[in-house]
Amino acid sequence: MSSDRRKPYPFDQIEPKWQAIWDECELFHAPNPGEKGFDPAKPKFYVLDMFPYPSGAGLHVGHPEGYTATDIVARYKRLRGFNVLHPMGWDAFGLPAEQYAIKTGQHPAITTRENVAKFKSQLKRIGFSYDWQREINTTDPTYYKWTQWIFLQIYNSWFNPGTNLAEPISTYRGTDPDRVRLAYVADVPVNWCPELGTVLANEEVIDGKSEVGGFPVVRRPMRQWMLRITAYAERLLNELEGLDWPGGIKSLQRNWIGRSEGAEIDFKVDKNDQKIRVFTTRPDTLYGGTFLVIAPEHSLVDLIVTEEQWPAVREYRERAARKSELERADLSKVKTGVFTGAYAINPATNEKIPIWIADYVLLGYGTGAIGGVPAHDERDLEFAKKFDLPIIVVVQSTGDEPALGFTGEGIAINSPIIDGLTSANAKKKITAWLEERGLGKRAINYKLRDWLFSRQRYWGEPFPIVWENGKHRALQEKELPVVSPPLEDYKPTGTAEPPLAKAKEWIRYSDKAMRETNTMPQWAGSCWYYLRFCDPHNDKRFVGEEAERYWMGGDQPGGVDLYVGGTEHAVLHLLYARFWQKVLFDLGYVSKPEPFQRLVNQGIILGEDNQKMSKSRGNIVNPDDVIDQHGADAFRCYEMFMGPLEQMKPWSTRGVEGVARFLARVWRLLMTENQAGEWELSKKIKAVDATKSQQKLLHATIKKVTEDIESFSFNTAISQMMIFVNAFTNVETIPLSAMREFLVLLNPFAPHISSELWERLSAEFGDAGGDVSQQSWPAYDERLLIEDEVEIVIQINGKLRDRVKMPIVATDEELKAVALSNPKVQDRIAGKAVRKVIVVPKKLVNIVVT
Known about the structure:
Elements lengths: L10 H15 L18 E6 L14 H16 L3 E3 L3 E2 L4 H10 L3 H18 L10 E2 L3 H15 L1 E4 L4 E4 L14 E11 L4 E3 L4 E2 L2 E2 L7 E10 L5 H6 L8 H11 L1 E11 L5 E6 L10 E4 L6 H4 L5 H11 L4 H4 L9 E8 L6 E6 L11 E4 L5 H10 L7 E2 L14 E2 L10 H14 L3 E7 L4 E2 L12 E4 L2 E4 L29 H4 L5 E3 L7 H4 L2 H4 L12 H7 L6 E3 L1 E4 L6 H15 L7 E3 L2 E3 L3 E2 L16 H8 L1 H10 L7 E2 L2 H18 E3 L5 E3 L3 E2 L5 H19 L3 H15 L5 E2 H11 L4 H15 L16 H4 L3 E8 L2 E9 L4 H10 L1 H7 L4 E7 L3 E6 L1
Parallel strand pairs: 1-2, 1-26, 3-4, 14-16, 25-27, 26-28, 29-30, 33-34, 35-38
Antiparallel strand pairs: 5-6, 7-8, 7-11, 9-10, 11-21, 12-13, 12-15, 12-20, 14-17, 15-16, 18-19, 22-23, 22-24, 31-32, 35-36, 37-38
């Protein structure tokens, strides 16, 4: 007897079989224009997942949630007649592989290769319809050759404010092109982790320690490569409007860019030639400015601090250097600061005001200095009260709010030039007054800062840059890719020098020139991978022009039609990719100004304990275990059946079992088990027309599943298919045509079982034209969904006696006649007097008797 009986249906045989067939037939390969099999008559649809970092732990059940959603859409669009580009690759540079290399001496490339193989095998088991011929890996030199090439385009460009575009640096007419390049070098304060030997992003620092390893992190100035993303701030902000992104994600992007209008005001340092420039959105409060606060790292600190205050200033700066920017910007923390001993002159009052340093002022935000107006700013008020600084009210509310601590707009007071003016008019007048005297000017400020683009790591893209006589210059395109040399050990140098500095022969480019030893951040490879997927094997160009125009084409500003991933990438990855796309667009290399037209974020899948999945909690669920027990189709369907895609929800083993039972019912609807324990097609299936009610249910299901896929309501689409299956479970005759259309609907969700059942039907009833995935998506007929019958309740003296189906157009007289002639009614009214008959159209007939 077959072992199939141990399982509700033989998914363990079906799924590997169909995965092998799909691979062998290259069923999901999307040819490019001009290639064999390309159909120019079909519209295109580019659906993309945020590609994963292949960690050693492999997938847990939360990872494939978004991948399942995109696969459903990809399969559905193919069935709708689209050329579908649905690729997968690996964002494989990263600190974990380097840390493993430091511990074991194993080259990160080997670790990465092993991790990729594990991830790929897991993804293939789930049955995703990726075009694996387009697989890319950011650590492959044939890929990062073009990452380096794009960096060179950025390096060799500048942003022309006159045209509002990036242009070749050759068009710059100034004397110092390095001052305006989009890629430049600067000494900036960074989060330096001596133990890891690298700079960390703010997000990688938690409570003053590295996220990886928990090592101490300090702030220190270092020479870094920067990308001038701030030049694109206005365009990054304005061009969000044409994108189909969730409102919350757009808000996060806008807040990160942080546009604000105001004025830049110069405060002269008393008894010194220096000036401190301050940006403020409230120049109308200038008369209330009673102190200045500058960032501890500000270059002016060393020039203005007095001898008496130097020890306190030095100690405070050392303490501030041990904090991350996120810690320093925390509004809830207690304010600290130190007086420099110096004073500035308030340009409105000509009064001397003290200059302090405080860690809540960040060098990278605005000018690195703020004017303290304690009466009208909560943070300034807290600071002034703590250090006993003057507080002057200069704005009066037009309502009942107290003046002290009032932060809204009102009427200017105690401000001779602008007294009595509304805040809006006061801002205009005081700014004009400052401009007339050369003391300030109108300004727009952004929270967005230039992108710190270098890392002191081994496992990253080397820069295609050499240094000669203290100056940097670009390598030629023919010298790409620049490949990192193997090292005997990958440990940090213990200094600010990156690990590549150990490769003495490699860094010596020539007798006079040395290679750049920093590497690019992991962000680099993910900034443009969606373009490489369009043409991954092109060795002449980062993407072919025709392929890029086709797959990134259309009437919308964004090229990728659907982009799905987690909200953890809602700001930086999306912002950086948009920046690179805009530079390439300005330079004429791509056809679209935006990379991603529609964005959908999937929610997090929690453990069964309602906690985030993690090794330490022991609540990780491995998809391999679920597939072993219930099959890949059950895993896919449950991931979508859990609830709306964008919501956070807990995993439930019982929930998987319920969905697995549904698929088993689908199987047993069309298959029966014979006495030998073998599955064969049910004799109930016949090539007959569906009944009227069956037709109606089928077309309602087609309509519901179609609309739900389009709206990403996958859970309710599955619910409708469950209703369909239940309705056919106990019928005597199952119409072949209805089952074939149903299998097409089921295919995007459960491709293996639908393919197998389709093949079995074709073997018995004749080939319907290839695999189920090669069919056309069924259309529904609205006429069949129109209710032409209605159920009428028949009552006697208000009590239910029967229900009957009647035409929806039946008249009151017809309803009365049917009710009075009903056998159940006649039995009960025999010998009684019918006093009246009440008809409620389309609902009931009530016969009143005595």
